Amino acid sequence: MLLFLYILLCFFQLQAKVGNTPCRMMGESKHPLLFKDGDVTIGALFPVHSIETSSSFKFTQKPQFLSCSSVNLRDFRLAQIMIFAIEEINKSESLLPNISIGYRIYDTCSSRLSSMSATVGLMNGLEIEAGDTCKGQPPIHAIIGETESSATVILSRTTGPFKIPVISHAASCECLSNRKEYPSFFRTISSDYHQGRALAYIVKHFGWSWVGAVNSDNDYGNNGMAIFLNTAQKEGICVEYSVKFYRTEPEKLKKVVDTIKTGTVKVIVAFVSFLEMGLLTEQLSIQNITGLQMVGVEAWITSKTLITPTTFRVLGGSLGFAIRKVNIEGFADYVIKAFWDTAFPCSHGQGNDSQIKVNCSSYQDLLLLKNYNEDVPEHRFSSNVYKAVYAVAHSLHSLLKCKTQEGCEKGLKIQPQQVVEALKKVNFTVKFGDCVFFDSTGATVARYEVVNWQKDFDGSVQFKPVGYYDASLPIDTRFVVNTENILWAGGKLKPSSVCSESCPPGTRKAAQKGRPVCCYDCIPCAEGEISYETDSNNCKQCPVEYWSNDEKNKCVLKAVEFLSFTEVMGIVLVFFSLFGVGITVLVALLFYSKKDTPIVKANNSELSFLLLFSLTLCFLCSLTFIGRPTEWSCMLRHTAFGITFVLCISCVLGKTIVVLMAFKATLPGSNVMKWFGPAKQRLSVFAFTLIQVLICVLWLTTSPPFPSKNMKYYKEIIILECSLGSTIGFWAVLGYIGILAVLCFILSFLARKLPDNFNEAKFITFSMLIFCAVWITFIPAYVSSPGKFTVAVEIFAIFSSSTGLLFCIFAPKCYIILLKPEKNTKQHMVGKTTSKFY
């Protein structure tokens, strides 16, 4: 045990000796592309080259540095704008007045490996030895970069433990908003959280509910597309396919192109970097896939490197969000002068500086500068780099306690963590008017310009502004676009991209099984339901008294149905009722004119006239059933019907009793007629009728009939009818009529074999038989008939029973009076009676 402790103690002593050795760099450091010393130093990473070449790693020898090719002029310009901003600050008397800013700009060659190597180079510096320990201060105070989100993630994670602030001008991935993982990260571009949502808004604005989605298979594309897909789902936008690829995956690119080729969408949302977009556009052009409306992001929508004679057929009319155009005053002159000196190493001046240069000739080949500075007036990403440099300068200005007249305290040592905290508080306005500050996630306010790919009059491709998106404004005014100024893909008309055409008013959407919600069938609304909006999910039920029109897009008042005087059925029934009245009046006039003849006298003329009067009322009461029901007509129709029919049958019953009494009076010793004389006959009729009147009064006082709207038989029609109120009252009225009719029928049946001059009984029997048959069949017909046909059945029953009574009782007498007057004599009546008895 003691031996072990001794060995351990010796080990720690050896370690202590090793720890005191100078801090030396293991291996050769990568040198910056551009650098300048200063009191404070800002580092930067830009993919100035877009292609890297490297030898294979055999792990048998030290790996060589990567070599780069294919200059990326856009990012080289970003490096130039950084230098321009630093030199502008160094000349300023108000910002860091006696402090010079240096820079170290590394080229990452659009490579993750180069990005890592450059990051380590920035943190280590160029010195081979860094003093006695490796715990010294980093040689830089902040890093500007990277351009791509994935590279920025590597940069931020590498520098994070050392609290070195990273300010990106173009890394918009929402993943970088996580302050726990990236506490020292800032950016002068807004997060893709806003751009992803804005893409969904522009798609919805133009009514494209069926789109395709393509994204770069990296942090930028995956996170941005996830935001778009989530927002699109909430906005009711369906995605036919969502595919992704990376620039180094040609097989995936081929599958993406095949998916686009076989898809049915006319609009594609492309959340890709400009390198992937170049590869995709090239393949689409090769396979002649044109006419698709592209909706893009700031990474490629204003990239002029994508413009070729063939790619405009693919990208012409593209819409997308771009960083706002800003003109940085002085940069155009600066960059032209700098590149003139680089491209043409000559001088017009004299003196020492011109001694090392060749004198300029009269003419220089400006074509050598072609395409470099063509986008200088539109410093989209350049303005972000400019603002990033100034943000670092303002944070250093506050940390160094700079004063306008006295300058800054140069002796202060600034730690990177201090710069991070100072960056959180900066709030200033740059010379072109933008206010610079960082929110809680380290990002700036989302402000985009909506641009459209158009060809100018000279055939050149221009990025025309057609709208804007500003997240700082209220929700209803954030997104504005001028549709009239847009050139659409494939022509002047806005493309339509829907899985199913819009369902017009009068229909509803029914989802197709197994397909997205944007794929649906248009189902007509059911009867009584409407939809007054396009693409309604449900049809709405019309109110009770309304019904849908033929187009099912509007509720209209239901048709009101009742038996009116103007319709054919009503006219026919009125005609027959009046016809019955007319016949009854003629019979009454005939009887009145022949009232002194034996046949009239023999048949109890007083009851006959009263019967004719009641029959007239029966025919007339049917008219109360025609027309719009009212409270008074509903009460009148049933009571008038009940009372007049009881009066009628009471008369018939009285005549029947008279016949029976008269026959018995002819028998020897009979004195029966004195018990049923004319006064008693009138009294019996009055008594029978009075009972019905009392029933009707009781009905009307307890629960009278009333007009109602019946909507049970026909859903689209309101039947105006008279509800019975109390059904007991109604059936009591009918029942009483039925009792009298049956009694009358029995008595008349018993009197059917009396002598011929009293043969009125057999006709009464026939009339009662017809009466009972009509009203027995009336009951089921009344119950089963819908609407106005119920009224028609009741009128028909009244007309039929009244006509049966009229013809059966009075037709034979009218026949004798008019056609057989010789039989209308007392001798004939007496002779016939005698022959009967003998």
SSE blueprint and pairings:
Elements: H1 2-19, E1 34-36, E2 40-46, E3 49-53, E4 67-71, H2 73-90, E5 101-107, H3 112-124, E6 142-144, H4 149-159, E7 166-168, E8 185-187, H5 192-205, E9 210-216, H6 219-234, E10 238-245, H7 250-262, E11 267-271, H8 274-286, E12 293-296, H9 312-315, E13 319-323, H10 331-343, E14 346-347, H11 352-355, E15 358-359, H12 380-399, H13 416-423, E16 427-429, E17 435-437, E18 447-455, E19 461-470, E20 479-481, E21 507-511, E22 520-524, E23 529-530, E24 540-541, E25 546-548, E26 555-557, E27 559-561, H14 568-593, H15 598-602, H16 605-621, H17 631-665, H18 678-702, E28 706-710, E29 717-723, H19 727-750, H20 760-784, H21 788-819, H22 826-837
Helix pairs in contact: 2-12, 3-4, 5-6, 7-8, 12-13, 14-16, 14-21, 16-17, 16-21, 17-18, 17-19, 18-19, 19-20, 20-21
Features:
single chain; 838 residues; alpha/beta; Rossmann fold; 4 domains; eight-stranded mixed β-sheet; six-stranded mixed β-sheet; 29 strands; 44% helix; 16% strand; rod-shaped
